Amino acid sequence: MTGVPFKRAGSLSRPALRFDSRYGNYGPPIRRQGRFLEVVCRDYFEPPMLKTFTTSRPEYILIAAIVLATVAAVVMPFAWDTAASVQNLESRGLTPSTNPIDTTSAPVVFAAIACTLLLAASGLLLILPRAAARQIAIIGAGAETVILLGLGAASLVSAFTLPPNTDALVGLALLVISSPLLAAGIAYLGVTLLIRSKSPGWRIAAAILDSVLAWMIALLALHEALDAAVPFWAGTVRNPIYNPAPYGTWPLVAAGLLALFVIAGTVAVDVYAVRARKPAAGRGGTS
Predict the structure, then answer these.
(1) Taking the alpha carbons of 37, 39, 40, 41 in that order, is the dihedral positive or negative?
(2) SS (HEC) of the chain
(3) Cβ pair 130, 286 in contact under 8 A
(4) What is the per-residue pLDDT across 143-162, written as a single tens digit (0 to 9) for each?
């Protein structure tokens, strides 16, 4: 068999087909048909996620490690706080709330849902072009900036516009709440500006700052929700009064969704920072 290598345009990485003079084509009919079906199936029916795992495996492993470390940093303190609260309740003869989820199993449920959704989201972000991943990271950080600054400004304005007969502690509480909200909003504004930088170092700094802010917000939300979801008692030692949690464990569900939202925004920034380590290639990878 004699001939010269033949490659289809745009397929330089695939094995070459050689011209066979005995058949007047590129191999026997059965072999040629098998090669054609292989090329068609590989080009048009290969799942995008499989392409991501085969072409961006080191990046996905690094991002998956960051996601798991972030979830663990939130879940472990939350699990310790939950165990301490449940032990305190049991020492008083009380039982934790179980509607809609059991308080004891809340950290495990949150960890399972967060790991599944965030790992899938990080894989989908790797499929997108780098410019699209950058826009998603900027939109996520910008949304968190607007929400925090809006809540802080609303609390600050409400503290000075209360009715005359309102308790002074309410205004003081609004002032105390507005300070961390405004500080977090300004910090997220810095994250948004750092993401837009052309330097990979500043993008990594944005990812680190975003991770710290998301960790603090998630832990604070889960801690406050846990205090609102456990039963409490009042009265005296001789005459204790048992008061069940008025909303069950629904505050934990709401806090879990909030924590998942802020961590998802962090994952988008992390994916863009990891992909920005290498120079952009082609039109789809421009930053």
Answers:
(1) positive
(2) CCCCEECCCCCCCCCCEECECCCCECCCHHHHHHHHHHHHHHHHCCCHHHHHHHHCHHHHHHHHHHHHHHHHHHHHHHHHHHHHHHHHHHHCCCCCCCCCCCCCCHHHHHHHHHHHHHHHHHHHHHHCCHHHHHHHHHHHHHHHHHHHHHHHHHHHHHHHCCCCCCCHHHHHHHHHHHHHHHHHHHHHHHHHHHHCCCCHHHHHHHHHHHHHHHHHHHHHHHHHHHHHHCCEEEECCCCEEEECCCCCCHHHHHHHHHHHHHHHHHHHHHHHHHHCCCCCCCCCCCC
(3) yes
(4) 999 999 998 899 888 888 88
Question: What token pair was written down for 53?
Answer: 């795992």
Question: Where do we find the tokens 């996620």?
Answer: 49
Cα–Cα distance measured from residue 14 to residue 150, given in angstroms and rounded to the nearest whole number: 55
CB 227 within 8 A of CB 247: no
Tens of pLDDT, residues 217-268: 999 999 989 988 887 766 666 666 667 778 888 999 999 999 999 999 999 9
Rg, the chain, Cα only? 28
Rounded to an integer, what distance in angstroms lies between the CA atom of residue 205 and that of residue 195?
Answer: 9
